[in-house]
Amino acid sequence: MAHIQIRIDIEEKRKAQQILEAMGLGMSGAIKLFLKKVIQEGKIPFEISANGGMQNLVSPSINNLETTNGFSKRRII
User: Cβ distance 55 to 49 under 8 Å?
Assistant: First the structure.
């Protein structure tokens, strides 16, 4: 198994933990589900747009993946 370490705002972490706990998930389980969905769909499993407020949370290179066909035509197995 691999180990992933991230830095996140303490308040965002606390809020996410509360929501995940209500769903019966821990942070690690939720991240594993996210990564499995990325692999299954071959993309980030939600829309990222300036109107949705997510624009500032991702790097410009991720925003350009679909327009540059970086991953949009690949199928990860």
Answer: yes
Other Cβ atoms closer than 10 A to 63: 14
Nearest to 48 by CA among 34, 26, 66: 66
Q: 34 is written with which tokens?
A: 């996210």
H or E, element range at 18: helix 10-22
Cβ-contact 43, 14 below 8 angstroms: no
Taking the CA atoms of 33, 40, 53 and 51 in sequence, report the sign of the dihedral they define: negative
Q: What percent of the chain has pLDDT above 90?
A: 58
